[in-house]
Specification:
Order of helices and strands: HHHHHHHHEEE
Number of strands: 3
Strand order of the largest sheet: 1-2-3
Number of helices: 8
Strand content: 5-15%
Distance between the termini: 45 Å
Largest sheet: 3 strands, antiparallel
Length: about 190
């Protein structure tokens, strides 16, 4: 229990208080928890929440952790000028979304998750992350390419996917992967 409290609850408390110039950047700091297993152990979180279904003592621990985490997330919004019910609801939206990811054991590859994060940040905070914030966030998580919040293409390829050489790419038809098309060494999104 102590390891879970320190690692998972501690990470959320630390990340909500981490330096950020904007609310969007602060939210990216929090999202670090759910992309970096060194910060937050989602498997341990799932195990503790499952155990809490059968143990009143563990349920009490989980509920206290939820209270502390929601309080910290609400404080993050308050720090950036959002208060009252709106701060509380935004904090709950962030937290319950991630709790849903964990309880449903949702798995997304890194390009898919990174593509969604600007929209999540905008929905959670009411502000889109700017280019520099996203670039720093992507760098922290080893993400080499993707779409900007404005839908513009970044040069690069899907990390971990085999891509053709420049010569082969120019001679062959575009490659497609989950709605993305790699052509002429540019990544473009093509919604289905």
């Amino acid at each position: 229990m102590a390891r879970w409290r320190e690692k998972n609850t501690g990470a959320i408390l630390r990340q909500t208080g981490a330096y950020a110039e904007t609310l969007a950047e602060a939210m990216l700091n929090v999202i670090d928890c759910w992309l970096d297993p060194a910060l937050f152990d989602s498997r341990l979180e799932f195990a503790l929440r499952s155990w809490a279904l059968q143990s009143p003592d563990i349920l009490q621990e989980v509920q206290e952790a939820d209270r502390l985490r929601l309080e910290a997330l609400t404080g993050l919004f308050t720090r950036f000028g959002i208060s009252g019910t709106e701060a509380d609801v935004r904090a709950r939206t962030v937290y319950l979304t991630q709790t849903g990811y964990i309880s449903m054991q949702t798995r997304e590859d890194l390009p898919t998750r990174m593509h969604r994060i600007p929209a999540y940040v905008t929905i959670f905070t009411g502000q889109p992350p700017n280019q520099r914030e996203l670039a720093r966030f992507h760098a922290r998580h080893g993400f080499a390419g993707g779409l900007t919040p404005e839908g513009q293409c970044w040069h690069g390829a899907l990390r971990g996917k085999k891509t053709p050489s420049l010569t082969a790419a120019l001679r062959s038809p575009p490659l497609s992967h989950e709605g993305y098309r790699i052509s002429h060494i540019r990544l473009r999104h093509h919604p289905q």
